[in-house]
Each structure stands twice: as structure tokens, then as C-alpha cells.
Amino acid sequence: MRIEPLALLLVGCVSSAATFDDTRALLPREAQVQTVARRAPAEELSARARQLLARPLDAQAAVEIALVTSPALQAELAGLDVALADLITMSRPTNPELEVEAMFAREGDEEPELTIELGFVLSDLLYAPLRRRIAGEELAAARVNAAGAVLDHAYAVRVAFVELQAAQMLKQTLDAVVASLRASWELTEALREAGNVPGLDVAQQYALYEESRLALAQAELAVALGRERLHVLLGLAGEETGWELAGDLPVPDELALEEDSLESRALDRSFELLAQRHRLEALARRSGLLRSMAAIPEVHAALSAERNGEGAWALGPVVGVQLPVFATGQGPARAAVAKLEVEQHRYAELAVRVRSAARAARHRFVTARERLSFVETTLLPARQAVLAESLLQYNAMALGVLTLLQAQRDLIGAQRAAVEARRDYWLARLELEQVLAGRMVEGSRVEVPGFENAEPAGGH
Amino acid sequence: MDQSKKDRDASLGAVESVEPTDSLAVVREVRTSRRGWLAGASALAAATLAKRALAQAPAHDHAAHAASATASESPTARATGGETPAPRARRSPADAAAARPTPRELIVPPQFDPIDRDDRYVPAVVPNGRTLPFRMVNGVKVFHLIAEPVRHAFCEGMEVEAWGYNGTTPGPLIEAVEGDRVRIYVTNRLPEATTVHWHAVILEAGMDGVGGLTQRNIEPGETFRYEFTFRSAGTYMYHPHWDEMTQMALGMMGMMIVHPRRPATPRIDRQFALMLSEWQVRPGAARPNPLAMNDFNLVTFNSRVFPGTEPLVVEKGQRIRMHFGNLSPMDHHPVHLHGYAFRTVATDGGPIPPSAQVPDTTSLVPTGACRVVELVADHLGDWAMHCHMTHHVMNQMGHDLENTLGMARDRVRQLDRRIGAQVPGYMTMMQDGMGGMSEMGMPTPGNSIPMRGGAGPFGLIDMGGMFTILKVRQGLGGNYADPGWFAHPEGTVARAATPSELSADGIEV
User: Is the confidence metric ipTM above 0.90 for this complex?
Assistant: First the structure.
């Protein structure tokens, strides 16, 4: 009779709403606020998204939209409900079995004999608390993975946003290159009209101009594809895709690196490690359960009521014990122990990878920061100086217009390098922040020539 | 004999007795010789500083290089644990040249009075230059040339690190008289070896100054002695004959005038020595480029460009001679004089017989040759004299740029807008011609004189380079300072025609 309350309690503990809230509690504060809206009615969500899309979209708003409307993220969180249902099922003891047996006499008029037996596996009641704890650990692991998926999605949105901003800025530099080469072409055209240069000079400049337009078309495609990637991550379609991008990549603010605690912070906050710990706990408990089951034979108990042909009832208990003659239960118990050992090794390996991911993210970030600083404080001024000196040489009639414009395009090249450096800075910073928030990054977006980005993904 | 004269005598003896073979000997030589020859009391310290500066410069460079070799040059080295060298202060070549001590600051220029005089001839005038002092020692005329780096101004606003003699380029004029025995000491203060070749002088082969052929080189710090007799009157030159490509491109050259023992008749009243040369110094740079073979952009009289050339001032009626010597690396110069016809009376090979002299207005002076022209200055006025190669009267003009002449005005406006948007400050040039471009006031590199002309009495004189002015005046009274612009007699200056004049002569415009 105590079975049902126990089962209800378990169900209550793992209800969908509670699971969502518990999952949300695992997230950083910013993501918590944004995921609150997910539970609002769909109409409200759409209105909020439309409101955010109506003004120039920044990274913050993009993340908010993604967390409230992204089908991908919704699917990820709905999957948590599936896991929850599975776990509820696993947490309940075996249902009692009611057996009714009627025996009709072939001769005579005796009433049929009835046998009614309500039986259940007695040992299940013994193991129920253990099963519940196992289920609790596995549910906790599922919650952690779901929270990690939220972080992953927000990270993916921020990365896509940074890359779109960079693509937009790179496209603008190509606009300037096209304008410069158009000026060169028009100059030679004017010189040819004046009779000063042959058609070859014009043709050469014209070819360069048209080549630059082709490069510009590719840059425009990169912007369009960058927007499409965001549309998928944000779950936008139709009229919702007409949003305007807000501004350029921001000038980086100071990020204090607590070098000594990077690895420990990554370890402490690692969602992968936390989930693995829950899994290990579940495995350990499962191993204990199986060992107990191997040691204690399965006991069936039943209450049997029997009515004979004369209508008299007899009531009595039935107890059965499984004799561990052939299946002793040692095999599953040993397998569980072995699996636990396997996962313990994987936990240690995962911890190594988390530490390495923290260091790698730190290397990428610091290098990207140095590179950005170098480009902005050294390379750009150097190219600006070349252009300024070229203008002086042009004024001194020691250098021609085409060479002057080439110096201007060289400056644009440095500006492109500055955009790429700023993009890589933000990508590296997002990666570092993601690792420190507890999620390893699968396939770093910060490209290192000559090095294949093959960072290990989260081990879940 | 006063004390200074004693010092001079002592210094001559010291120079003869010293053959420095090490740096200390060089300093001793500097000390002993300059005490007599140079007026500056700080010469020793200055020369020592100069020597030290020369010695330290490469050592510093090596040290810097060695330091940088141990550190990563990667701009992100700090991120990955490497060392980033301290950023070097960026300075323009002109700034760098101005910052370090110049030879002129280190070595007191030999602006001293002639030690001895030679009254057998009227000394030639060297516009923008001077004559080498000498001393008579036992009947031998003794000179001392010092080959050294010099800081040289082509005109106001344009200075370079050049090489020359006794603080100047060209080196000072050497004057002597036919039959004179001369002893010329040559001290080498250059960073490399040198020699001196006495161009066109007939002398003993061992005195001809060709490195490797007739003598060993004069190594840095050494002083060599040349001695020979000027057998013939004439106009000659001197220049290095070791790495002459570098040394002459940087200004090492000078002229020599050997006057006839029996003065020519009729008497020559006034003579000018003019060394012709050409250089390549990019606008904003501060050192001539010895690698240049074609694109020279500074063409000079006595290493000066107009408007930095001193005028040639003469009294009306004077018989004058101009001694041209051309040691340009690659070019000849047709020097044209306005207002006069002259006769070329001699080359560096000797006098031209009167029967072979022809009247001319332009004297083509080949490189490696001298021409002496003579005229009687009987036309008052300011008369231009210049190389008639048009690019030789331009200052620092480049030649590898687009010819925009004749471009349509609307096109120019369109380009100015389009390119100006990309390169603020841009302005299309030359589309209507290049006259008066120096007055456009566009910012140009420091230490440069691109397209520079000079002020004249009627506006800009739109020429530079190898251009000067012969000023013929009356009543100078022996004062040959620049008399200013010529005051033209009434009605003798070209002016705009009036409508009535045009109409009277049937001219329709």
C-alpha cells in the first residue's frame, strides 16, 4: 500500500516544470533571465522577438531571441522531457500482478472454483530506493546536458553574430577597394581621352576594377550566408529575416584574466564533468544494486484467495524465491563494476581535456589580443604613414596617382587585417568565456594556419 | 714670424713626418696638422668625437642586431612566452641626419684666411665655393686636401650628407702658375679608401692617383703626399679614382686652374670656376644615391641648384673667362649663356688656337672634360646661364608618373572628388602644364625642393638646377656683391600689347 505514494513522490520530484527550473538554475545569470521567457505563451514570445527585430539587432538581442524562439533549442529542451518520462518509468517498481483463475466442473453443478492472487516482486520494494537514487542521478545528468545545450546555443549565436559583423566590415573594405580601382580606371580613361596613354593602360586598369567587383560579390555572399546562419540559430523565417545589423564589431573592453585560476574555474564549472559525475554516481549505485540483486535472490510475494466448489473461501500468502542456480546475477554485477571503471577513466580523461581546453582558449585569446593590438597600434599606423608619405611624394611629383592609389589600397589591406584581428579577438574571447562558463568548444572558430583545429568535444 | 706662422710651419713639418697607421696615430695627425691648418681650437676633441662616432656606429648596430637575434620578432610573442623587442623609434632619414652630429659640426670647417698669397695672377672666383689655401715651402706650393663627409646644402631647404674635401663639395679650387712645383697632402677621413686623380694634368705616372694602378689606396686615417710640377697652364679637375662611382656621386670633385706664367693678352679681368655635376636625392631623403645611373634629379653648378646659385657679377667691359669642368656621373651639359656670343678658348687638353675658335652661345661640356669660354661683358643686364637640357633645370622632379597634361576639366573635377574621398588632400596636377608648380603650396616631404624655382623681379623664375645669372653692371667700383635686379631702361622690357598697338599693326587675337 505504500507503493503508490512512493511512486507519486518520485513523479512529483521529476515533473517537467521542476526540471526546467532546475535546469535553468544551472545556467549563468544572464542565460537564466533569458530562458524565463521560454515558458511564456507562444504569442508573447513572438511579440518579444518582433520587438527585438524591429530595431537594429545586436548580439545580446540575438541571443535572447534564440533562447526564446529557436526551434533547435526548443527541441533540445523538449528532449529533456523525453528523458524525464523514461526516468519516471524506470523509477517505479514492478506493477503488482493480479491473477484470477476459474475452474469449471465438467460434471455436476458445483460452482466454479476461483483462485484470485495478487502478487508482486517483494524484492523490488527493497530495491526501490536504490532505483530512485539511480534515476535521480541520471536525471541530474540530463539536466546538466540540457543546460549545456542552452549555453552551446547562446555561444553559437554569438559566434555567428561576430562572424556576420566581420563579414559586413570586410565587405565594406572591398567597397573601398572597388572605389579605388574605379578611380584608377577612370584616371587612365581620362588620360586616354587626352591622348596620353594607349588603350592597354585602360584595359589593365579596367580588368583590375572588374576583378575587384568579383571579389566584392563573394564578400556580399559571405554576408548573406552569415545572416542565414543566424536565421537558423534564431529560428527566423519569412518577414522576420529583414532585420538590420547593429553596428560594427565593438572595440574590445578590458578583460581581466585570472591566469592562476583559469584551469580550476573551468574544472569547477564544467558541465561535462558535472554530468559525468552524475553518470558515475548513477553507475556506482547501479553497481551496488546489481550486487545486491546477485546476493539476494528475487523474492515474489502474493496474497492468494481461493474459493472451492462449495463456495467456501480460503485466504493465504504465497512466497516464492528465485533459486540462483543458473543466472546467479554475478555477470551483470561485474559488468556494472567494469563499466563504472571505464567511466571513471573517462572522467579523468575528460578533466585533462577540460584543463587543456582552458589553456588552449587562453592561448588563443591572448594571442588574438596581442595580434589585434599589434595590427591597430603598429600595422595600421605604418600603412597610414605609407599613404601620407606617398601623398607627399605625389605632391612632389616623385610618384604617380596610380601608385598613390595603390598605397591607399595597401592601407585598406591593413584595415582588413584589423577587421580580421578584431573578429578573431572576439571569437577567442567568446571561446574562453564559454570554457570558463563550463562548456568546451567543439571545433574552435579561431583559425591557426598550419594547425588543424581538432579540439575534443564535450564527452557526453 | 708671429706665433700663428710658427704654428703653421710646425704643422707642415708634422704632416710630413707622420704616417699614421692606427687610430691613435690618426688622432695625433689630426691634432698636429689641424693646429696649424685649422683655426678652431676644438678640432682635436671634435675629430676625436668624429672618430669615436664612426667607430661606435657599427658597434651599436651589431649590438642591436645581436639583441634582436635572441628575441622573437613575432608581434604576438608575449602571448606565447617569447620576448618582444622594444619598438624602435621611427625617424625620417632627414630627422636622423639632423639628429646626429654632422661633419661640419664635428670638424671645424677650414674657413681661414689664405696663409700665403700669390700675386702672379688674379684669383678666380668660385661662386658658392672657395679656393684652397697654400703655403710656400722652399719654393714648393704646399696644399692639404682632406677627404671627408660633409653636410651640404643644395639651396635653402635641402641638405644632404655628402662627401667632399675640406668641408665642402666641390672641393676648394686649387690655383697655381704654369711651372709651379706643388706638394699636395691628402688626408682620408672617409669611411673607405680613396685616392686623388689630377685629371688632365701631365705628370709622373706614379702621381696619377689611380688606385691599384699607380698607387695603393689611401686608407681611412692615412695621409698621402702627391708632388708634381704643373708643366702647362690650363684648367683641370681632381677627383677620386677609387670607388669613384660612389665618391663622385656624393660630391668628391674639384677644379684646378693653372695660370700661364706669361699672362695672356689681352688681360683677363675676371674668371669664374664652375664645376658641373648631377645627383640623385629622392624628395625627403638626405643622402645622394651613388647607385643612380639615369634618373638624376639635382643638376648643379658648384654643387648648388638655383635659386641657391650665386650670380656671376662683372663690370661692364671686363674680359671674363668661365672655366667649366664636368664630372657628372653620366651626363654632358650644353651650357647656354643668354645675351652673348663667346669663344671657347681652351679645354683641359690645352688652349685652342685662335684660328680654331668659333663664336658660340652654348658650350657643350662633356663629362670628364673642361671648357674655358671667354667673352667681353659689354651688354648690361641680368643674363641667364643654364644647361639647355630642360630636365637639367628642374629640381627633384620624378619621371615615373602619369602625364595628365590635357585631361578634360570635368574629368579632373570628377577625379578630384573620387580620389579625394579615398585620399584626403589629393589634387590632380599638371593637367594644364607645369609652370609655377612650386607656388601651389602643396605639402611635400621635408628636406626637399621639388619643382622649386626662385623669385625674380617679374615673378617666379620657373627654373632650378643648373641655372645661374650673369649680372653685368656699370660702376661697381670693385664691389662684386650681388647688385640686385637689373634696372631696365625705359621701354626695353617686354609687356602686354595694348589693343591700339595690336590694331595699329593689324594683329587680330
Answer: no
